[in-house]
Amino acid sequence: MSSLHTAWFEGFHPQQFDVNGVRLFARLGGRPIDDDSAPVLLLLHGFPQTHALWHRIALRLAPHFRLVLPDLRGYGDSDKPPGLADHANYSKRTMAEDLIALMDTLGHRRFHVCGHDRGGRVAHRLALDHPQRVDRLCVIDIVPTLTMYERTDMAFASAYYHWFHLIQPAPLPERMIGGNATYYLHAKLGGWGAGGLDHIEPPALIDYERCFCNAAGIHAACEDYRAAASIDLVHDRMSRSAGQKVAAPLHVLWGERGVVHRLFDPIADWQAVCEGPVTGQALGAGHFIPEEQPEACALAMSRFFLGEC
């Protein structure tokens, strides 16, 4: 896994897909798409990023997997529709349905999923709503959304203040962030234990700035969080009441310098919502593990998805 190409996403093909009423951007790469012997891996980024988060991971995993790297609804070069009154068009259920439609278009009936940050929350809902589609699930530096909200205290609210700022009614957070969007973006990317921006590849940072630092990108991110604090919690409580749990084996990675490590118990918190086996480990990073520790992260992912752990 140490021999990597230097060109930006060399061997990966950008495409646009019309799915579930929106247009999604995705890069496809790795093993040939018609190579049925190679497992399919869907990689989901989080806030405030794009699929570019996965660049160094994707290059390391490309020899072993057919890879699908979308920009989630509201992020990157995917559509950013105005939020509805109930924020349903940014619910994790709707975003998961986007991805099911994308994978249907690509002909992938079953696949692995890995999500970082918000992408992990979409992946969690996808695994709950579509258990027959997910072989294995990996989430990076999160515990379940409902768990995090239910345990909110001063320490969590201080560290993840954006969870409570972004959910305020429009256009308050949009206008506040829009006053200096680049400053805000850099503060987020350099925070949560990351220790600055050195972990980010220059082309990735350009992508994040281009896609986030505009009115549509800021509004879409706010809608993602507004949905998380409203309709997503309704869906999560319904799943809990019905006894619905993740059926697929789950592997969780988290950063030793991050908020999740400091305030939660990732293995136990995921075991509470899973019926399948839960494994995991902390890595020497803050929140942005795929960029801070790409080699260790890719190795852990590869071993899990190839059934070696």
Question: Quick one: CATH class?
Answer: Alpha Beta
Alpha-carbon Rg, integer: 18 Å
Whole-number mean pLDDT: 96
Could you tell me the number of beta strands?
8
* CATH fold assignment: Rossmann fold
User: What is the beta-strand fraction?
Assistant: 15-25%
Order of helices and strands: EEEHEHEHEHHHHHHHHEHHEHH
How many strands, which pairing sense, and closed or not: the largest β-sheet? 8 strands, mixed
Structural class computed from helices and strand pairing: alpha/beta
Runs in which pLDDT lies below 50 for 5 or more consecutive residues are 1-5
Instruction: Write the CATH homologous superfamily.
Output: Alpha/Beta hydrolase fold, catalytic domain
Question: What percent of residues adopt helix (DSSP H or I)?
Answer: 40-55%
Tally of domains: 1
In the sheet with the most strands, the strands line up as 1-2-4-3-5-6-7-8
Overall morphology: globular
Distance between the termini: 18 Å
Protein name: Alpha/beta hydrolase
Organism: Leptothrix discophora
GO molecular function, one term: hydrolase activity
InterPro entries: AB_hydrolase_1 (IPR000073), AB_hydrolase_fold (IPR029058), Epox_hydrolase-like (IPR000639)
Polypeptide structure, described:
The protein has helices spanning 55-61, 92-106, 118-129, 145-150, 154-159, 162-165, 172-178, 181-189, 202-212, 215-228, 231-241, 259-263, 266-271, 289-292, 294-305, and strands at 13-19, 22-30, 40-44, 66-70, 111-116, 134-140, 250-255, 278-283. The chain is of the alpha/beta class. The protein has one domain (13-305): 3-Layer(aba) Sandwich (Rossmann fold). It has an eight-stranded mixed β-sheet, sandwiched between helices. The model is unreliable at 1-5 (pLDDT under 50).
